[in-house]
Amino acid sequence: MQRRWLAGVFAVSAIWALLVAIFSTDPVHRLWGAVAACGYALAFVAALAWKARGADIALGLSFCGGLLVPLVWMAAKSLEQPEVAVVAQSAQSLIHHGTPYPSAATLAATQNPNVYNPYLPVMALFGLPRAIFGGGLLTDPRIWFGVVFIVVFWYALRRGGAQDPWRWAVLIAASPVIAFELAVGGTDVPMVAFLCLGFAFLWQRRSVLAGLSLGVGAAMKATAWPAVLVAIALLAVRDGRRQAAVFTLTALAVVVAFLGPFLVHPRALVENTIKFPLGLAHVTSQASSPLPGHDIAETGHVGHLIVVVLLVAAGLAVAVSLVVRPPRTVRRAVLLLSGAMTLMFVLAPSTRFGYFIYPATLVIWLLAAEGGRTGPDEPLTPDPGVPPASSRTRSRTRIVSRQAARCSASFARSTRAASPG
Fold first, then answer.
1. CA–CA separation, 225 vs 296, rounded Å?
2. How confident is the model at residue 351 (pLDDT cuts 50, 70, 90)?
3. What is the 3-state secondary structure (H, E, C) of 126-140?
4. How far apart are CA 142 and CA 182, in angstroms?
5. For residue range 102-119, what is the model confidence (pLDDT) as tens digits?
6. What was the pLDDT predicted at 228?
7. Residue 233 has what DSSP assignment?
8. DSSP structural state of residue 382
9. Residue 223 carries which DSSP code?
């Protein structure tokens, strides 16, 4: 990633933030846009002005301006989107009532969509600091969303083989793809990091660790479940049924461990995590970006039924593709998952533009990781008992990942250029 290319990234980011500041109707969004636009503009200048350490200075400015300053300010002033309060309230309910979910009776008596908790149990853990110690900067769930994302995403980059994983992690965390979502809400941010880590372990052919990672993601939010299915298909065709079974049992054990205690009251779980996100509850979700699924669902009962049918049909089509033409490499698996998620978000009756951080982050992680590998599905350290890829396969995969390798290596050279030693 050359300095001029890096400057281009910051220029686009500054324009994005400025448009948010000008056109958004949400004051929290506008605040992020105003602060982030300044940070990205300074990063753009730094990337072009200094050959020595310019890339590192630019990364620091973008991280501070795009993420750190607005996140800290909003957390200190309790400026947040409703989902942050939902996570905190779910933790309160977990402590006092033994479940993060309001009862079906409570839901039937409310017209407030923020009473619902559409997240799975692991998400409530991020609200525990506020539930235990009260409000404040360090107890804000977004702070812990961010810490978990940066650490897990860095580890996913490192396991995936990316060069300079810390710099890549800072760049992606500071970009509008993550920073905007994290500063104002952030519930999707830690989950996408665990998805990347799961596929990094699949690259290393470590089925148990991949199952643990994707299992944690699947226990945060149902959005991660398609990733588990794609991983099963990949393992079955690449490594055999035994490895697919090991992965499946591991991921299932993690989900059951977190979800099992709350199956005692299945109606509350269904109302909160299934019916409400699908728009089947008597209260409508506030997730209402003008995407095709939402717009069609807004036309009435028939329109909503059409959207649900289309969503189910799309899911079945992806499932059929996993059986008929399963992915044989991590690269194809990630791209297939990204495409399936994009289709799902476009057709969902309750959706937000922010959900597209899933496919965007997965693809960015893939490109960064591919640059440090000799082949997309070759472990960096071969595991005993796993046969190496054939020379023909290695040749083909090197061609596929060559451009990503050039990008990652160039980024490493530019950020190290002026470092003494």
1. 25
2. low
3. HHHHHHHHCCCCCCC
4. 6
5. 998 899 888 898 999 999
6. 95
7. H
8. P
9. G
| 56 vs 166: CA distance, rounded Å | 11
Can you spell out the DSSP letters for 81-93?
-HHHHHHHHHHHH
Per-residue CA distances from 378 to 53, 191, 322, 373 (Å):
34, 25, 22, 8
Does position 408 have pLDDT exceeding 60, yes or no? no
CB 273 within 8 A of CB 237: no
CA proximity to 130, closest of 139, 117, 142, 143: 139
The three-state secondary structure class of 351 is strand
| pLDDT value for 265 | 80
| CA–CA dist 207, 215 (Å, integer) | 12
pLDDT bin (cut points 50, 70, 90) of residue 395 is very low
Helix, strand, or coil (residue 288): strand
At residue 301, the 3 state secondary structure works out as: helix
CA distance 361 to 188: 11
- Residue 291 pLDDT level (bands cut at 50, 70, 90): low
User: In a 3-state reduction of DSSP, which class is residue 371?
Assistant: coil
Q: Which amino acid is at 373?
A: R
CA–CA distance, 339 with 343 (Å, rounded to integer)? 6
- State both tokens at 60: 């620091």
Asked whether the beta carbons of 221 and 188 are under 8 A apart, the reply is yes
User: What residues are paired with 288 via a beta bridge?
Assistant: 351
pLDDT score of 397: 43
Determine contact, residues 216/114, Cβ cutoff 8 Å.
no
pLDDT of 39 > 90? The answer is yes
Identify the three-state secondary structure at position 292: helix
Global pTM value: 0.85
Q: Which of 40, 389, 93 is nearest to 268 (CA)?
A: 93
Q: How confident is the model at residue 418 (pLDDT cuts 50, 70, 90)?
A: very low
DSSP 118: -
- Residue 416, both tokens: 């190290």
